[in-house]
Amino acid sequence: MSHDIIDVHAHIGISSTLAVAGSAEDVLRKMDDNGIAQAVISPIPGYEDPNGIADSATQNDNIAEAVRKWPDRFPRGLGVVEPRHGAPALSEVDRVVDALGLHGLMFHNDFAGLPLDHPSMFAILDRLAGYDNQVVQAHTAQHSILEAPFQLGRLAAAFPSVTFVNAHPMMDTTHLSASIDLASRAPNMVFDTCISHHHLWPIEKAVAGIGADRLLFGSDNPYFDHSIDIDIVNHSSVPDSVKQQIFAGNARRVFRL
User: Fold this and answer.
1) What is the pLDDT of residues 175-197, one digit of tens each?
2) Cβ neighbours, 10 Å, residue 105
3) Least buried of 10, 114, 173, 246, by fewest C-beta within 10 Å?
């Protein structure tokens, strides 16, 4: 059975850290090749920022331009504000929401160099929480000292009006266990399927432990040619109705599409 697919985890830009790049056109081509109808886009983590806040602003401008140019394919965009830039970066939160019309922020703290629960993160989220219907996509990793799941849980507890997308929360079996535990304590958090481990039934366990209504498809475009995450969901034993929730239905609710 084929499904409509909305990808909530796609990046545009050049990551010098990981030597990966993808323009809006590259992301669109890979969406087409994989049957992905729409994507929520954000700047690629690891972009160069020798000019500090100005470079983050350029990343945000690029996301806003792609949303403006291809609104049917990129219905929502997330901006970026780097916590290491400190208090002077708070005005970029306002610009992301007010001037650019983006839907929230993306963080990958292993690249930012400061932990998810650093005071700078609380300051950024406090500014963002002043706006309605904001979404934060935050990458987590069980092995990380900068973006461990419990650190994201502290943010979710502090800002209940914000919806948090836990990005690639099932990279291994221990990570999935931590995500299931976190889900029980963070009702304002949802979880994507990006880079899920492919053994020991991750989708089945996530549906049982987190809930079918809190799982959203994510691919990590442009890091792939063929999205194995589509295969992991499609080949799971959950009902087709649940697969459709994961592939598109839950994204429509979370991002108000």
Assistant:
1) 999 999 999 999 999 999 998 98
2) 26
3) 173
